[in-house]
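During the reporting period the student researcher (J.K.) took over the structure-prediction task from the postdoctoral fellow and processed the backlog of single-chain submissions. One of the processed entries is reproduced below for the supervisory committee.
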Amino acid sequence: MNLQNLSTEVQSQSKTIEEVFMNFSMEFPQLLDSGKSSSLDDLLETLDTLEKENSLSSRTETSHFHGYEEKYSGLFSDLNEKIQNLSQINTDISHIKNDSEEMELIALNAMVVSIKSGDKGRAFSKITENLQQLSTSMIGLSARLSSEESALINNVTNLKSLFQEITSCQRKISEISSTEMNKLSKCINRSATPLHEMKQLSQSIYPQIQGAMEGLQLQDIIKQAFDHVVMCFDQFVDDDSVSSNEEKLDTIAFNISLSEIAQDVLSDIGDHLQRASDIFSQKWVLVESILNQTEERRSDYVHNFSHSSTSSDEMSIVAQLESATDGFQELLKNFAQFQGIQKKVVTVCRNIIDRAHGMYDVFASLRPVISRLQHVRILQQIEVSKNDAVMAVKDLVTDMDNLIMDSSNSLDTMQVTIETFIAEISDMISVFTSTMSDDNAKMTEVRTEKVAFFNTLQTLQERIYSLMQHFTVYPPEFKHQCDHVNTMLGQLQSIQLDFNRMKGQLTSEVQRLSDKKARFMHDMNLHNYEIKDHKFKELIKKFTITAHKEAAGKIAGFEVEAGSAPGDITFF
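J.K. obtained the following C-alpha cells:
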C-alpha cells in the first residue's frame, strides 16, 4: 500500500467532512431564520386585522341603537295623548255644526212668520235673513273645520306610523349589522383556528433543527483528530532509505507505532462521525415528519378555502366573505330606507303644523260670524219685544239665543284646545325633529363606519385571496434548504463508508509492518524491541486532544502529562 496515497486520501476526506460540517453550520442557522415570515404569518395577520376592523365598525351603532325603542316610547305616548285631545275638538265642531243647522232651520221658520206679517214684519224679516245667512256660513265653516281636523288626524296617524317604521328600520339595521358582524367574526375564527394550529405545528420544527446543530460541536474534535492522523502519516519513513538492519528495525517499529496511533485516532474519528450522523439523522427524521404533516394540513386548508361542504356552518372562506358582502348590500338598502322615512317624517311634521294652523284659521273665521250672530240676536230680541206682529216667534228667538250662546261656548272651548294643541304639537315636533336630526347624524356616522369597513373588507378580502393563491407555511427557500440538508446527510453516510474502507487499509498496513518487524527481530535474534528514535515523543507533544496523547503514550510505552479529560482539547 502506498502510505502517501492513504495520507492524501485522509486529507481529502478531512476536507470533505469539513465542507459538510461547514455547509451544515450555514444551513441550520438559515433554516432557523427563514421561518420568521411566510404567507401563513401574513394570512394570520390579515385575519387579525379583519377581526379588529370588524369590531371597530360597530362602535357607533352599539351606543346609538342601545335603548332606541325606549327613546321613542315617550314620543309615542305624547302623540297618542294629542290624538285624544283632538277628540274634544271634534265634539266642539259637532256642536257648532248641529247648532248652525238648527239656527238655519229656526231662521227659516222665523222668515215664514215675518213674511206672513207683511209690512209690519219687514224689519224682522231682514234681521232673520241675516241670521239665515250667518247660519249658512257657520255650517260651511264648521265643515271646513271638520275637514282640517280630519286632515290633521290623518297626518298625526301617519306620523305615528312613520315612528313605527323608523324604529322597525333601526331595529332591522341593528339586527342585520349584529348578525353580519357575528357571522364574519365566526368566519374569521373558523379560518384562523386551523392556521394557528398549523403555525404551532410548523414552529415545532425549529427545536429539532436547533437540536441537530448539537452535532456541529463535534466538528472541531474531528478536524483536530484528522490533523493528528496526517501528522502521523507525515512522519512515516521508508525503511529502505536506511542502511543498517538496526536502523531498518527501528524505522519499522516507529512506522508501526505511527500506524497504530493513526488507526486508534481514525477509530475515534469514526465514533465521532457516527455520533454526529446519529444526531443529524434522528433530528432530521422529526424535521421531515413535521414537514409532511404541515404540508398535509396546508393542502387541506387550501382545498377547504374555496370548496364548501353542504353544511352552512362549513362554508368556505370565499363563500363566507362573499356572504358578508351581500349582507353589507342589504344593510345599505336599509340605510337608504331609513333616510327615505326621515324625509317623509319631515313632510308629515310640516303638514301637521300646517293643518293645525289651518284649523286655527277656520276658527278665526268663525269668531266674527259668532260675534255678528250675537249682534243680530240682540236686534231680533228688540224687534220681537216691540212688534206684536212677530210676537209669535218669541220662543224661536229664545232658542236662537241659546244656540248662539252654545256655539260661542263651544268656540271658546275649541280655541283653548286648538291653541294648546298647536303649542304642544309644535313643541313635540320640535323635540322629535331634534331627535331625528341626532338620529340622522348618528345613522350617517354608522353608515360612514360601515362603508369604511366595507372598503377595508374588500381590500383585505383581495389580500386573502392573493395570499391563498400561493399559500405557504414556510418560505419557498425553506424546502430547498431542507433538501440540501438531506443531500449532505447522504454524503455524510457515504463518507463513513469510505472512512471504514481507509481504516481497513490501515489495518492491513499495520499487519504488514508487524510481519516485517517480526522477520527482522528473528533474523537479529531479538525477542523485544523499543524505539530509539525520540521523534515519537516530540510528535505526541503536538497532539491537542488528551485522549489521543494518552492512547499514543500507551502504544509507545511511555507516560504523557495529565491534562484535560479524554476527548477534551489540550492547548500548548
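The committee noted the following: The two ends are 34 Å apart (CA to CA).
J.K. will present the remaining backlog at the next meeting.
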